[in-house]
Design brief:
The protein is mostly beta strands. It has strands spanning 6-12, 15-22, 29-36. The chain has a three-stranded antiparallel β-sheet with strand order 1-2-3, with no helix packed on it. The N and C termini lie far apart (31 Å).
């Protein structure tokens, strides 16, 4: 299993956005995951 090298968590209007940067032989691969605000989700 590969783990991201860097992870940014950015607040957005609908919750938070998680951005992962992966270690790859090519230029860094960036994965953006929209994450809803878990505190307000019911």
């Amino acid at each position: 299993m590969t783990f991201p090298v860097c992870r940014w968590v950015t607040p957005t209007e609908s919750g938070i956005r998680v951005t992962d940067v992966w270690e790859t032989p090519e230029p860094p691969e960036v994965t953006i995951l929209p994450v809803h605000n878990l505190l307000t989700a019911s």
